[in-house]
Design a protein that fits this description.
single chain, 3 domains, two-stranded antiparallel ribbon, 15 helices, 45% helix
Length: 379
């Protein structure tokens, strides 16, 4: 039976602050080494039929239930164990206390995603110098630079998986549950967070109550239009090979195709950085599509111009550049059409093409499919 701190009240009472810090560092290192060893065993266990013999659906499910772990932690253990042979330098760094198991988990996930494009050495250098959370973001940028198409495809899949369930109780209360992709979640948080702040010292509402009140206020027309800050290099916006992903408030790094869509109809403020990331110039914010042009566009199109008969009104649409301005397209009306959020996303992240024919009609071209099932068209 293990002794608890209550059983030994004086066991650590003599420790100095520095001894406390060292004690925690040592314990953390021991835990990381044990998790590293556990991961190797978990991967070997997954190769056997022991979990199936015990009636579990998967090895991860068996580990989750029998080792008292969350599903994510169990899956990470198996993933690290299966990839450990590709991470000799990282394993050595972990055993020497230079990185933790959280770093190793991110390293393994990155290696699995990139296959032969993965290079351990530069990432290990970053892992040694950064916290696990910061290192995770670094690896997201690394993945985008190495394989932007796959990165964009994964984010597109997250959009396909988002859902919102609405259930009304007998007393009229509305139950809401769902899942949003990172970009959709960032847009939601950007709109809700300012309205969910405390309104003075006498505001004793819980955070959950303030969140709910903010959603109701937003749905009722209160507040202002959400403004999302995206930081992107020109190389990323152009979709050049090797470019990092873009940074976005309340979200993980986003793909260049998403940046292109967001930049279609937005306010652009120039911020120039030097080689050491110090701000050297800040330009005034300017809308890509000026308000007079936006009003003329709304008057001409009236609604989303997707050829399949979308009737989303102009107030719910973005001004889409048929030839994007980053590629030399103008903001003249001839180069602009209104697209609702869904169809605008399909053109950029969904790889649909939309063009204006010689007769002025808008034509759509579905994504080119080289393998797998046929592309799904719009509903």
């Amino acid at each position: 039976m293990l002794a608890t701190q209550d059983d030994c009240p004086s066991s650590t009472a003599h420790l100095t602050n520095e001894e406390w810090r060292e004690r925690l560092r040592q314990n953390s290192h021991v835990i990381s080494v044990l998790m590293w060893s556990f991961a190797q065993d978990a991967a070997e266990f997954a190769k056997t039929d022991a979990w199936e013999e015990d009636g579990s659906a998967t090895a991860i499910d068996w580990i989750r239930f029998n080792c008292n772990m969350a599903s994510g932690a169990a899956a990470n253990s198996v993933a690290v164990g299966e990839t450990i042979a590709r991470l000799p330098e990282s394993s050595q760094a972990l055993t020497e206390g230079e990185i933790g198991f959280a770093h190793l988990t991110t390293m393994a996930r990155t290696a699995n995603a990139l296959d032969e494009r993965f290079d351990e050495a530069p990432l290990l250098q970053k892992a040694r110098a950064n916290s696990p959370g910061k290192f995770y973001r670094i690896c997201e940028h690394y993945r985008h630079a190495a394989d932007p198409k796959r990165y964009a495809a994964e984010q597109a899949e997250q959009v396909e998986n988002r859902y919102l369930k609405l259930s009304t109780w007998q007393d009229g209360s509305l139950m809401i549950s769902g899942q949003l992709d990172p970009v959709g979640g960032a847009a939601f948080l950007t709109a809700v967070k300012p309205l969910a702040r405390k309104m003075g010292a006498d505001d004793d509402r819980s955070q959950e109550r303030r969140n709910a009140d903010a959603v109701v206020e937003l749905a009722s027309g209160g507040g202002s239009q959400a403004q999302i800050q995206v930081t992107s290099s020109v190389e990323t916006l152009l979709g050049l090979a090797g470019a990092p992903a873009a940074e976005m408030e309340f979200s993980l790094p986003i793909s260049s195709t998403t940046v292109e869509r967001l930049a279609c109809d937005s306010s652009i403020a120039r911020v120039l950085l030097d080689s050491e990331s110090l701000v050297i110039d800040v330009g005034r914010s300017k809308r890509v599509v000026a308000e007079p042009s936006r009003r003329a566009l709304a008057s001409r199109d009236a609604h989303c111009l997707w050829p399949m008969g979308c009737d989303r009104p102009a107030s719910r649409c973005a001004a889409h550049h048929l030839v994007h301005w980053i590629r030399g397209g103008t903001t003249d009306l001839d180069n602009l059409i209104l697209l609702c959020h869904r169809h605008h996303w399909m053109v950029h992240e969904g790889n649909w093409q939309i063009v204006r024919g010689d007769d002025g009609r808008i034509l759509t071209i579905p994504p080119t499919v080289t393998f797998g099932p046929p592309a799904r068209g719009p509903d």
